[in-house]
Amino acid sequence: MATENTDLLTQWIAEELSLSLTNVRSVVELLAEGATVPFIARYRKEATGALDEVAIRNIQEQHANFTELLKRREVVLSTIEEQGKLTDELRQRIETTRSRQELEDLYLPYRPKRRTRASMARERGLEGLSDAILAQGQETPETIAAAFVDPEKEVPDVEAALAGARDIVAELVAEHADLRAFARDHLSQHGVLHSLMHPNAEGQRTKYEQYYDYSEPVARIPSHRFLAIRRGEREEMLRTNIEIDETPILERALTFFAYNPKSPWAPHLENAIEDAWKRLLSTSIDTDIRVMLKQRSDEGAVQVFASNLREILMAAPLGGRSTIGIDPGQRTGCKVAVVSDTGAYLHNTTLFLHRGESSEHAARKELLDLVERFDPFAIAVGNGTAGRETERFVRETLKSAKRQDVIVVLVNESGASIYSASDVAREEFPDLDLTVRGAISIARRLQDPLAELVKIDPQSIGVGQYQHDVAQTMLKKKLDEVVESCVNAVGVEVNTASAPLLAHVAGIGPTLAKRIVAHRDEHGAFTSRHALRDVRGLGPRAFEQCAGFLRVAQSDNPLDRSAVHPERYALVEQIARDLNLDLQRLVGSDSDAQKIDPKRYVQENVGEETLIDIIAELRKPGRDPRDAFEPPQFRDDVQRIEDLTPGMILPGIVTNVTAFGAFVDVGVGQDGLVHISQLADRFVRDPNDVVALGQSLQVKVMDVDIPRARISLSARLDEPLPSEAGSGKTQKSSPSQDRRAHAKRSKRGPSRGSQAQDGGNTPFADLLKRRN
After folding, report:
1. HEC profile for 227-274?
2. Which H or E element spans position 584?
3. Which of 407, 430, 447 is the C-terminal boundary of a domain?
4. 465 domain residue, yes or no
């Protein structure tokens, strides 16, 4: 049975993702054996057809989803069978569906539930009368119903009998799997989400004002707007409903239940269907659509966060150069920490810049003494409160001493305070104050953003949108995948890496990472990859998974400094012999590596894809895929938000990319927003298509709201200012403004349940007139 399920899952995944069945089966088998995604993508290309990490993770996710579906399917089949209601047709539908939603729809009529109006009617013996309504025959309803009158069963008269029968029919209608699927699809395609001001917000200025009377199609509302509206609803600042023309749903229900307008029973079926929609189905489907919107929005927001996190983790590193880190502070002073070229802590002090001229003079002298003593390559200044003022002070101090050979960089310090108070920081620096730990982190972030940021919960880095509103399990899983992918793409020097960094290497994890560090501390630096086998708990499987991603700079074997996996060392040694070269010469020789013909060395388990990777590593062993470091530049005359005026064109750095635009640091301590409509001179569907976190960007200041600390920017440098709109120049409205204007001009469709107020002038009444 397990084999059958595995074959079925593999087939479903291949069809769902449009991938080769053979490649999917290989991935599933490798994952089942304990292989990691980075290892499979990098070192098992022949087995998978060179699928990348994204495709492999998609297979992994689909496998988990379908496995859960099969488990749930068994429970559903067992439950219905125990009730004696499992027909061959129902079994076939349940066993062939790949949709969890459809499975639950098919199960709904048989699911144990609390007492309902329909179940009470069944208890009173009215199921036979409901069958007569569904049969749509020619008998007189009142005559048939009279036989079901029984005061002892709380059926006092004919009308009570017919009402109970209609309740049974209404529940059958509401639980009809195909009707539910149709209604759900109709609402998702044609529904309109409408938000209104909550009575609690009356007379208040809130951040939700743009949604006080707002409409947008369910099919098109972007994740950030839905999450904003949902948050406003949760905070009782907004009310929402999904508006829909229910006519097609009611019409489909009439078709499903063989409605016969000429039957005396027709009015009872009409009544039951309308009751089913109003009382049961509309509420249920409304909930389903909101769940669908939330899931879709979560996925969108998580993807934005993941893309931004990847950019910040893969930001260009300064590299192994001594650095001074400064955590700016006004009242308590600026905490300063010096780290070596390997990131080792050397010294700390505090500079007071805001206590008068004498303290500032003393701070200048102390900073220059540090520069003279430690000769740093760079000074990293945190970009928090007073960051720009501190940066200016450092630049002026270095300029006065003619030490402009030391570069000064403003570093994003998001999450530094969380790291400094964490268990990881306490273990690393138990005797240092947390403010000093923060300065160390700022310095190390400049040296190697990836190595330092992996110590912090990715959610604390703050490079997403609505991260606290999305499903936290989904967010954590995605961000962990991004960190794992980045760490393994860059590779890790095993003799300098921290335990948090090693923990993200394929096949290692937190426990084994601590053992590696402990072994290194006790026995000294590792001299080869093979020496890793001496670490307690690092067995053959873990070694296979991690070895290719670990570098050993001190090894005598040059391949230990590359991404060539130890399982291919013998092959590379054979290649070197064939070229009459010493291995030391071949590794790192671009000209010699280019002479290798990959086709000559194709073997059963080594194809051209792997050989091409090996040759690339031989040309540039241990190459870092990250860009070369370039210090960001801001205008010296722009320090505060008050220095900004509309029309200014400034250099900036992208600090966050969201679905609605990009935030840009122009050096005033407050990021400005470039709306998606202002990112390019063409339509932009996804901001990630045109900008990336950390990218340098020229922007134009469009508007400055000092009281609210809001800066509006444009990457379209010839874009006219809002004040120029009336001077004959064209000012384009943003998409969101266009939508709001359209919403006000458009006539909204009837909202759910509006028939109750409209009496006979309902869509359903009109429909029945047409059909009759």
Report:
1. HHHHHHHHCCCEEEEEECCCHHHHHHHHHHCCCCCCCCCHHHHHHHHH
2. helix 583-586
3. 447
4. no
CB neighbours of 271 closer than 8 A, spacing ≥ 6?
A: 166
How many domains does the structure of the chain reveal? 4
pLDDT at residue 769 in the model? 63
Angle CA 525–429–524, to nearest 5: 10
Phi-psi region of 162 (alpha: psi -120 to 50; beta: other; left: phi over 0): alpha
Residue of 553, 585, 549 lying closest to 564 (CA atoms): 549
**Nearest C-alpha neighbor of 185 from the set 289, 294, 299:** 289
Of 267-281, 512-526, 706-720, minimum mean pLDDT range: 706-720
For 275, counting Cβ atoms within 10 Å of its Cβ (0-12 exposed, 13-18 middle, 19+ buried), the class is buried
Burial category of 757 from C-beta neighbours within 10 Å (exposed 0-12, middle 13-18, buried 19 and up): exposed
Determine how β-strand 550-551 pairs with β-strand 492-493: parallel
CA atoms within 13 Å, Cβ hemisphere of 268 = 29
pLDDT band (50, 70, 90) for residue 759: very low
One-letter amino acid at 485 equals: S
Half-sphere exposure of 605 (CA within 13 A, CB side): 5
* Closest-CA residue to 334 (of 343, 345, 344, 324): 324
State in Å, rounded, how far the first CA of the chain is from the last one: 53
Class of residue 632 by CB neighbours under 10 A (exposed 0-12, middle 13-18, buried 19+):
middle
User: In which domain, by residue range, is 598 found?
Assistant: 557-619
Categorize the per-residue pLDDT at 728 as very low, low, confident or very high, splitting at 50, 70 and 90. very low
CATH number at residue 384: 3.30.420.140
pLDDT (0 to 100) of residue 772: 55
Mean pLDDT computed over 621-626: 91
On whether the CB atoms of residues 121 and 165 are closer than 8 A, the answer is yes
For residues 514-527, average pLDDT: 96
Q: What is the average pLDDT across 178-197? A: 96
Cα(248)–Cα(85) distance, rounded to whole angstroms?
31
In a domain, 673, yes or no: yes
Find the CATH number of the domain harbouring 39.
Answer: 1.10.10.650
Structure tokens at 705: 């709201």
Nearest Cα to 223, choosing from 286, 282, 313, 305?
305
**In 3D, which of 622, 623, 625, 597 has the Cα closest to residue 612?**
597
Q: What is the mean pLDDT of residues 435-440?
A: 93
Residue 141, Ramachandran bin (φ over 0: left; ψ between -120 and 50: alpha; else beta): alpha
**Cα(424)–Cα(493) distance, rounded to whole angstroms?**
19
Check pLDDT > 70 for residue 760: no
Q: Alpha-carbon distance 624 to 607, whole Å?
A: 24
Closest CA to 253 of 188, 141, 190, 169: 169
The CATH code of the domain that includes 648 is 2.40.50.140
Q: At a CB cut-off of 8 Å and minimum separation 6, what does 492 contact?
A: 501, 502, 505, 549, 550, 551
* The model's pTM: 0.82
